[in-house]
Amino acid sequence: MATYSSLLSFSLCLLILFHSCSAQISQVTSRSRQQQQRYQTQCNIQNLNALEPQQRVESEAGYTEFWDQYDEQLQCANVAVIRHTIQQKGLLVPSYTNSPQLIYVMDFKELHSRVVPIHTNIQKNNHRDSPQVRGGVAHWIYNRGQSNLVLVSLYDVGNAANQLDQLFRKFFLAGSPPQEFQGGSQSQSQRGRSQGPHQEQGRQQEQRRHRGQGQEQSGGNIFSGFNQELLAEALNIDTELVNRLQRNDPQRGIIVRVEKEFHVITPQRHEQEGREEEEEEREQQRGRYNGLEDTFCSMKLRHNINKPSLADSYNPRAGRATSINAYVLPILNNLQLSIDKVSLYKNAIYAPHWNINAHSIVYITRGGGQIQIVSESGEAVLDEQVQEGQLFVVPQGFAVVKRAGDRGLEWIAFKTNEMAMTSQLAGRDSALTSMPVSVLENAFGISREEGSRLKNRRWEMTLFTPSQSSRGGRY
Amino acid sequence: MATYSSLLSFSLCLLILFHSCSAQISQVTSRSRQQQQRYQTQCNIQNLNALEPQQRVESEAGYTEFWDQYDEQLQCANVAVIRHTIQQKGLLVPSYTNSPQLIYVMDFKELHSRVVPIHTNIQKNNHRDSPQVRGGVAHWIYNRGQSNLVLVSLYDVGNAANQLDQLFRKFFLAGSPPQEFQGGSQSQSQRGRSQGPHQEQGRQQEQRRHRGQGQEQSGGNIFSGFNQELLAEALNIDTELVNRLQRNDPQRGIIVRVEKEFHVITPQRHEQEGREEEEEEREQQRGRYNGLEDTFCSMKLRHNINKPSLADSYNPRAGRATSINAYVLPILNNLQLSIDKVSLYKNAIYAPHWNINAHSIVYITRGGGQIQIVSESGEAVLDEQVQEGQLFVVPQGFAVVKRAGDRGLEWIAFKTNEMAMTSQLAGRDSALTSMPVSVLENAFGISREEGSRLKNRRWEMTLFTPSQSSRGGRY
Amino acid sequence: MATYSSLLSFSLCLLILFHSCSAQISQVTSRSRQQQQRYQTQCNIQNLNALEPQQRVESEAGYTEFWDQYDEQLQCANVAVIRHTIQQKGLLVPSYTNSPQLIYVMDFKELHSRVVPIHTNIQKNNHRDSPQVRGGVAHWIYNRGQSNLVLVSLYDVGNAANQLDQLFRKFFLAGSPPQEFQGGSQSQSQRGRSQGPHQEQGRQQEQRRHRGQGQEQSGGNIFSGFNQELLAEALNIDTELVNRLQRNDPQRGIIVRVEKEFHVITPQRHEQEGREEEEEEREQQRGRYNGLEDTFCSMKLRHNINKPSLADSYNPRAGRATSINAYVLPILNNLQLSIDKVSLYKNAIYAPHWNINAHSIVYITRGGGQIQIVSESGEAVLDEQVQEGQLFVVPQGFAVVKRAGDRGLEWIAFKTNEMAMTSQLAGRDSALTSMPVSVLENAFGISREEGSRLKNRRWEMTLFTPSQSSRGGRY
Questions:
Q1: What are phi and psi for residue C192, nearest 5 degrees?
Q2: Least buried of A1, B137, B353, C236, by fewest C-beta within 10 Å?
């Protein structure tokens, strides 16, 4: 069980950032009602490749990589994906976005006690004397560890919570953000792309050209746009200190090196969270963790999705799959997102299936394998060997099959629905299995016996054991 | 009462297809919250005509007709409409879509016991030991009857459940679908049309040209896009059988002839459904049917909308109207759709009104009559004699009046809201009736007596008796 | 406290118009779920100015002013704003829209007993013998007072309730509406603008030219588009009276002069409403008004947002701010809108902040001051002295600071979320205040002492007292 034990040797963490956390049930209901639907873009999906980041921007204590938001896959899913690499003692400076955001933290065990990832700004609203908690999500991340910290961040630009246009924007409260974060400062021809039908051809070249300049240009943080004296009066500080807030230093960028000691006066809530996590771990060892605490945002903003007790599917000869949806983690109702984590052993197959009500944005976290994606026209739009660090999109309805290579295959799949569902084309609960033999017989023009074979020969659920022949590693 | 008795001589059935049916209340709630809003397109409505299908594609045992999805009316409503004619012993092969779908079945009485229309794929999710039902809607339809079976299918492309773009797509698990079902394989200039402002002029010609080729081209089903050996291993079958799944035979198309006997091992659920329908009929005869059973998807996916007891409005001299909304049929909450069925007797008038919160897509099921639709600029954008088999859209807010011809007029209206509402311009509960006379007097510059006449001279509710003069059949 | 007493000397009223009011809880739930999300447009915000109306159309007894719906600010927020000035004895004729609408009534005290603003058309639906109330919002407004009545009306074109495109439309049941209300009759090149990327440059000129013709052209009301004889039969009136309904008289326009006495037979509901308002006022004087009655549409469609007891924030040296959201006024759940009313005293500052989950459309009701808006690129996109009667948009996420001039500054802010939230950049509950000093220290490269100053020197909540130096009125 080499693969399984290697699975235990690393662990992963998910950070969920949203506009706010609401501590009143009535408000939660109201809010979850409100964030409802995705914005559509074009899904001109014909011939895809697994994607690597297109752009890299250096900061003082790390670097940030950007996938091309205008790639047709990411356009169709209407998300932006970036990857931060934060060096030891690096601080990702405070920022916020207008879109919900999921951050996947690689190598969680290491940084467990080293990162205080989320700063949530709780404020009492004295309206009618009823408690009402609201907050923004200006957040920062500090790497207290001995090695680089890698974060894969998905920004759900197409989410209903985003009331601006479909350009990816991130608002920095400090530092010198590169223009890749500034949807609004991109050129006008570019900004129209998600909508114009005939400008597609020139898009990618122009995109690359534009982005090529990105590394030299940096904008200011949001303090830098205010009048110095007005800001000084609002904060009741001297203009010299305002100068420091507004300073633009592209060398420092958005990940700065902490030179002195880093003190964090942890709010009560965070301590509690730390304790809870430890308790969770203990509970888990005792087998009592149930994963369904009725907890609010502060407590469930971090979620270790690799705990074995959360696994949905486990096949000792094929692998393990876990889904974190709004049922498991209620705050996902607010984000309209969910996430899967899957480990496939050597040569195992993840059942061919389609996503019923979501796009699936897949990031390979480890190993490699074969991926095929088929469109409604019956053509393979992607058929490729993928590797760790690559990304691809499985659009809603499109059929997909994944098969691990010799080193196994592990991925996370961000899904654009808080209760994402799939329907399988093979396996015990598949569409074929539940059709009458007469339908299969006539629909495919096959014999009764063949129809019966079609239904019954693969009786595993989702994770399929490789056949004898393929254990030799054909793919 | 010739028209009324003829009404009884035929009966209609509605099939509702959706992503899935959810057997957990909590999930139902979550799902219904999630499907929320329509995607907007242009509503450049200036001069309309009632529409007939633009394209016809033959299959082995029937044919499929397509309305032009790029017609400005259907663009505004953002729906696609097709009509299947399935011959005796014809099987419409399994397929699924990424948009909710309503199928209106003509001549229901005949096929009642002959069609097993819906295959729903229920699968247990062992997550946390709580029951959780999820399913896709790969469905197939078989005509066991003695005559052709006609289905009018509305695909709600603009529905929030569709996360792809605004092209109509249908994914076939078998057969050889024509490219009309393949939004993704349409040409790039075409796919951009729903968005580009200046390309409108050339649209229709190109559309026709493109579609003209449609009959010769067929794509494969979704199995055909996978690698043969990978699929063989996933299904654990030999590649010869995979060959049969992947075979593209345009002659058979998507409606195939069943040569041998057609056995369906009806799942328990379906039997139950059959019994329920018989019981419903008996109950109905005894007058005890209440139409409000608290049932789940499997039981209420079919709904006979012509049962007299469901009628909302009945005027013995004008006709009968029935609304099926989410209040009557809760699963419509998930689709964000509802449907009206109206029978107008000879020369009767359906009150002029506007749709408050929905588009109305009207399909004439019988007879003929006069339709006028007025835009916010006070111009008639449609003023036409319509006939059985034609289709038109009444956009949200636009005012419409319908008047039956000499043979009566019957229609169904698909509405893009699960609780569609109208407001009338005439009749007992109209906007005029509830305004103070002083407002009418001054707003129209008429006398007090005239204002009073305006409010009080038409005291029926919705279905208006023809006046003496018009019973001669002026329209 | 001169400013505060002047505040008391005028009072404001808010009218809320929506498709309908639903008297069944189940329906309210269903409806509020359904209206969920905004339509996105482009937010190409680079260099803004406060806006005044671009177009003025005269009617017999008043005039209507239109802000340019194609201005980039209003495009980004996806709203249309108009201002009606109704002379003494003027009647704004009945109309309805397909978008939710908020009307802000200037100088409410004066017209309190003179306006019967909303006619709501309630009708019983005898479906299943259960009460079901539905209605349209054909509404009219009459100025019974001695002076002009000024209404500022926001139409939320981007609201999910609008199923047509993003053109502003208003459907008039009477009068001769100018073409500014007719999205559908605008030229084709114009209608495509909200979507086409490259046509932006020519937009504004063409817009102006087009609108310049607007004053001479008038369309008919919706009755004018129907066939005369068909309408006569539907209403059961003679064609001569139909002629009067259909008459197009641009001189009268949409605000007509009431020559004779204006009788309104107030429905029971309205009387009740009147009584309630008087009671509210008495309660308010006795300090017992709680603003949270569990009331339905008819009772809460008008809301006096200037009642001191509703104030959220009050700083005797800086001003007063009130938020009306769905928590205070549940019907706002249906509109997905809320509203703020703020009075800043001379030279006081409203805390720099960003809107977390909404756009903010700000209309200056009194006085003047300095506004700065900063985008995610750290640039001030608006930096201007604003005056009474001007309008500007603060897009979601953008940072904004407001500072009153010598005469004080008062505004209303329409917000595109029924539970709009902000996060502050300064003050006791700001993002800075709740960050650890170490984060500020390293993020800004400042000393520990400076970080501490940044957090602690402005300890007011939202409304900031001017500093000694600026009380001289620098801005």
A1: -80, -10
A2: A1
Judge if A131 and A266 occupy the same domain: yes
Residue C360 lies in a domain: no
B98: enclosing H helix or E strand: none
Give C 294-313 residues with CB within 8 A of chain A: 312
C351 HSE (CA, 13 A, CB side): 24
Residue with tokens 């063949």: A450
Domain end position, chosen among B309, B324, B355: B309
Structural domain count of chain B: 2
Q: Which two tokens stand for residue C125?
A: 């639906």
Q: Which residue of C has its CA nearest to A242?
A: C454
Q: What is the ipTM of this complex?
A: 0.80
Give domain status of residue C301, yes or no. yes
B239 contacts chain A (CB < 8 A): no
Q: How far from B94 is each of A444, B45, B121, C167, CA to CA, in Å?
A: 10, 36, 12, 41
Q: SS3 of A84, please?
A: strand
Integer CA distances (angstroms), C471 to A162, A319, B274, C350, C351, in order? 39, 70, 82, 15, 17
3-state SS, residue C380: strand
CATH code of the domain in which C102 resides: 2.60.120.10
Domain holding A445, by residue range, is: 437-472
The tens digit of pLDDT for each residue in B410-421 reads: 999 999 998 898
Chain B interface, best mutation among C222, C258, C269, by max B CB count within 10 A:
C222
Please say whether the dihedral angle defined by the alpha carbons of residues C158, C164, C166 and C172, taken in this order, is positive or negative: negative
**With an 8 Å Cβ cutoff, is C439 touching chain A?**
yes
Min Cα–Cα distance to chain B from C355, Å: 23
The two structure tokens encoding residue A227 = 């009048």
- For the segment C293-323, what is each residue's pLDDT rounded down to a tens digit? 222 223 344 555 665 555 688 899 999 998 8
- Distances, alpha carbon B475 to alpha carbons B303, B380, B425, C227, in Å: 34, 17, 20, 11
Least Cα separation, residue C262 to chain B (angstroms):
6
Which amino acid, A193? R
**Among C41, C15, C99, C17, which Cα is nearest to C396's?**
C41
Which chain C residues are Cβ-neighbours of A193 within 8 angstroms?
A: 197
Query: CA-CA distance, B184 to B169, in Å (whole number)?
Result: 7
| Contact: A42, B163; criterion CB under 8 Å | no
Query: Which residues 120-149 of chain C have a CB within 8 Å of chain B?
Result: 121-128, 132, 134-136, 138, 140, 142
The dihedrals phi and psi of B141, each to the nearest 5 degrees, come to -135, 135
A384/B contact by beta carbon, under 8 A:
no
pLDDT along chain C (475 residues), means of 10: 29 49 29 45 84 96 94 93 93 90 68 31 28 50 83 89 89 93 57 38 38 53 95 95 94 92 55 42 33 27 56 88 83 83 95 95 96 95 96 96 97 93 90 87 95 92 83 43
Of C119, C225, C230, the CB nearest to B403: C230
Q: Is B362 within the bounds of a domain?
A: no
Q: Which of B309, B337, B354 is the last residue of a domain?
A: B309
Chain C partners within 8 Å of A92 (Cβ): none
Residue A330 domain-assigned (yes or no): no
User: Which of chain B's residues have a Cβ under 8 Å away from the Cβ of C35?
Assistant: 37
DSSP string, C93-121: EEEE-SS-EEEEESSHHHHTTT-------
Q: Which residues contact B202 (CB under 8 A, 6 or more apart)?
A: none
Residues 6+ away with beta carbon under 8 Å from B125 = A312, B132, B133, B134
Q: Which residues of C touch B458 (CB under 8 A)?
A: 234-236
Query: Measured in Å, how far apart are chain C's first and last C-alpha atoms?
Result: 21
Task: Give the predicted TM-score (pTM) of the model.
Answer: 0.83
